[in-house]
């Protein structure tokens, strides 16, 4: 059994000029919501269950997808108030019994990750957490990531321009160990800037570097780019 937790609770504030009144992950690409392309991608990766962490206008997502997608079960964990990516993950970990190795992915980005390679890297480094990284030549927007000579992540959120890698928003974690690490956290907090930064300082995160297509729909320009790339595919 292999579960994937997809974070789809985003408000999409920066996309308001383009979309209105729907969750960011439901932004239309052609005739389908962006989230459907994500579920379709992961449905080909031997996933046993989707868990959607919802928030803003959760009912739109639940009404559209229901309880299964391509015969893969869908469970929902709904925020009653905004919790940030960290709070949403913690709520899900406390609410649902997950497979030991859990995939976590952002619902507003798409990374053409080779899951087989990522699991091979996960096993090679023998760490409890691994992050998919995308090499980038010139980074003016995303938080950068630094590695040591052993392939372990040392820092998150560094200076944009000088960094060679960005966090592509796909993780494999040991669900029980992540819950244990986060058990004293509460409220609204960021998984990236709080949890991952602490884990990096402790040298507990390894990286799977893959130069694959990475799509983000967080701002109007990138949303238009995503639409062009996905429809061409």
Number of domains: 1
Q: What order do the helices and strands follow?
A: EEEHEHEEHEEHEEEEHHEEH
Helix content: 25-40%
The fourth-level CATH homologous superfamily is: Spore Coat Polysaccharide Biosynthesis Protein SpsA, Chain A
- CATH architecture annotation: Alpha-Beta Complex
Name the structural class. Answer: alpha/beta
Within the CATH hierarchy, at the fold level, what is the topology?
Spore Coat Polysaccharide Biosynthesis Protein SpsA, Chain A
Straight-line N-to-C gap: 29 Å
Radius of gyration: 17 Å
| Average of the residue pLDDT scores | 88
The general outline is globular
Our count of helices gives 7
Low-confidence stretches: none
Number of strands: 14
What fraction strand?
25-35%
In CATH, what is the class?
Alpha Beta
Described by strand count, sense and barrel closure, the largest sheet is:
10 strands, mixed
Could you outline the blueprint of secondary structure elements for this entry?
Elements: E1 3-8, E2 28-29, E3 32-33, H1 34-43, E4 49-54, H2 58-65, E5 68-69, E6 72-78, H3 84-95, E7 101-106, E8 109-111, H4 115-125, E9 129-135, E10 144-147, E11 153-158, E12 165-174, H5 175-182, H6 191-201, E13 205-209, E14 214-216, H7 220-232
Parallel strand pairs: 1-4, 1-7, 4-6, 9-13
Antiparallel strand pairs: 2-3, 5-6, 7-12, 8-14, 9-12, 10-11, 10-12
Helix pairs in contact: 3-6
């Amino acid at each position: 059994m292999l579960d994937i937790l997809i974070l789809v609770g985003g408000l999409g504030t920066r996309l308001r000029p383009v979309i209105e009144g729907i969750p960011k992950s439901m932004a239309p690409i052609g005739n389908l919501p962006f989230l459907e392309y994500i579920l379709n991608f992961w449905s080909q990766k031997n996933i046993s269950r989707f868990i959607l962490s919802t928030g803003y206008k959760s009912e739109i997502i639940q009404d559209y997808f229901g309880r299964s997608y391509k015969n893969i079960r869908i469970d929902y964990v709904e925020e009653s108030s905004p919790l940030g990516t960290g709070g949403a993950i913690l709520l899900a970990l406390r609410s649902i019994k997950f497979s030991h190795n859990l995939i976590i992915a952002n619902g507003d980005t798409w990374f053409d990750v080779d899951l087989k390679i990522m699991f091979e890297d996960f096993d090679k480094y023998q760490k409890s957490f691994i992050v998919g990284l995308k090499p980038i030549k010139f980074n003016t927007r995303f938080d950068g990531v630094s590695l040591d000579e052993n392939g372990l992540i040392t820092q998150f959120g560094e200076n944009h321009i000088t960094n060679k890698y960005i966090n592509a928003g796909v993780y494999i974690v040991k669900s029980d160990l992540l819950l244990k690490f986060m058990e004293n956290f509460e409220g609204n907090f960021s998984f990236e800037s709080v949890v991952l930064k602490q884990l990096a300082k402790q040298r507990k995160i390894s990286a799977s570097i893959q130069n694959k297509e990475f799509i983000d729909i967080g701002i109007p320009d990138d949303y238009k780019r995503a639409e062009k790339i996905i429809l061409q595919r």
